[in-house]
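Q: I have 489 residues here and want to know how they pack in 3D. Can you give me a structure?
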Amino acid sequence: MEQVEAVAVDGVKVVLSPDAVAKMQASRDVIEKIVSRGQVVYGVSTGFGKLANVSIPRNELNKLQLNLVRSHACGLGEPLPPAEVRAMMLLRANVLAVGLSGARPIVAQTILDLLNAGVYPVIPSRGSVGASGDLAPLAHLALVVVGEGEAFYQGRRVDGTEALRRAKIRTLTLEAKEGLALLNGTQAMAAVGGLALLRARRLVETADVAGAMTLEALLGTPTAFDDRIHQARPHKGQIASATHLRKLLKDSEIRESHKGNDPRVQDAYSLRCMPQVHGAVRDVLEHVKRIVEVETGSATDNPLVFPAEEETLSGGNFHGAPLAMGFDYAAIAIADLMSISERRIDRLVNPDANEHLPPFLTSHPGAASGFMIPHVVAAALLNEAKVLAHPASVDSVPTSGGQEDHVSMGMTAALKFRDIVALAEKVVAIEMLAAAEGLEYRSPLRPGKGVERAWRLVRRHADRLSEDRSLTKDIEAIACAIAQGRFCL
C-alpha cells in the first residue's frame, strides 16, 4: 500500500514491465483463438449478467465491449478526488498486468499513459455494490480510455476526447473481452479504502501521542505502560502502543514532580487502557492491510484466462467481500479510537473529572468558554462516526435480474471508512490542542521528550488560547498534519 500511495499521492511514474507484457500477450492469444473458432465464452461472445445466454455475432463483438462500458457508466455523486482516482488507475492496470484477463498489453499501457500524463477520469463516487466488482466506477474510468466521458486535466474538467487530444494519447478501440476486462474488479473500493487505511495507521500512532500529552497534562502515571504488564498479555499492537507511550513519556519532569505524593492509585480507563485500546486498533489495521495487499496483487477479472491450458474459467474473484468486511472492521476500530479520545478530552476540560486544570482550560472561566465547545464538536463527530460504523457488508440487494444475487457493498464500506478516518483525525486534533493547552499550566516543568516535541509541533499550527477565539482553523490545521503523518513521533 505504501507503493500505491507513492503513485496516488506523490505522483511517482509507473511503467509496464516486459514480463507483464509477455503474460498479457499470452492470455490475449487465447482470446484471439476463441474468437477465430467462434467458441461461446462468457463476456467474449455472449451478453452479460442475466444476458449471459445470448450469443453475439462475431461482427458485433467490438460493439458489445463498447456498449458494456457505456451502459455501465451511470455512477452518481461527487467525483472521487485525484489521489483515489490515481490509485484506482494504478490498481486496474496492475490487474491487467497479472496476465489472466485476456486484454492486449496496449489496454494497460493506455491506462498508465493517462496516469503518467495527469489525465484523471471523472469517477462518480456512488453506484457500486461491489460485485461484479466496482462496475460503475470502473466503467467511468474505461470511458476515458475509449475517448468518451469526462476527465480532469491540468486543473480543468473536460471531455474525455479533449483530454486525450491535449495529452497526445491515442483513443483505444476495445476488442473482444477488453471492456469486461476493464470493468470486473474491486479497484475502486481498494483505492478508496486502501488510502484511508494508510491514514488510519498514521492516526493510531498519533493517538498515542495525543494520549501521552493528555496524561502529562492531567498528572497521570505511566505505570500502566510497564512492559511487564503487556508481556503478560502479548498482543502485538498492545505491546507496540505501550512501548510507544513509554518512549513519548521518557524523562518527564512533570511525572517526577508528583511521583510518590499523589493520593490517586490509578488513572481512569481512557488513560490507563491506552495500550489495550490503541493496540487493538493497530492489530485490526494490520489485519486489514494484509487483506488489501493480497487484493491489489490479484486477478479480479471474470472469466479468467489461463494460457498454459488455453482455458477460460468463470468464477467470482470480482466479489468484494474480503475488502468490504475488512473496511467495516477497520471502521469500527477507528470509531472506538475516537471514543477513547473523546473521553480524554472530557477529562481535560470537565471540572468535575479533573481538579488539576482550570475549568474548560481557560484562566477566565465564566467570562470565557475556552475548550467547552471543541469538546461539544468532538461529541458531534463521534456520534456521526458511530452511525457510519454500522457495517455495510451485512447488507445485500440482489441485482442484474437475480443473477448477481449476493453483493458485497464494498464501495459503501470503503467510503464510510474514509469518512470515519477524516472525522477521527479531527477528534484527535481537538485532543492534541486541548492537551497542549493543559501542558501550558504545567510550565515550567517539562513533559517527556516525545510529548514536548509534539507540543512544539502543535504550537507551530496553533497559538495558546490566551483568550477566546474561533478554533476552527486550528483544528483543521492539526487534522491535516495528522493525515500527513507529521505527528508520528
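Q: Anything worth noting?
A: Strands lie at 76-79, 119-121, 124-126, 150-153, 156-159, 304-306, 311-313. The first strand starts at residue 76 and ends at 79.
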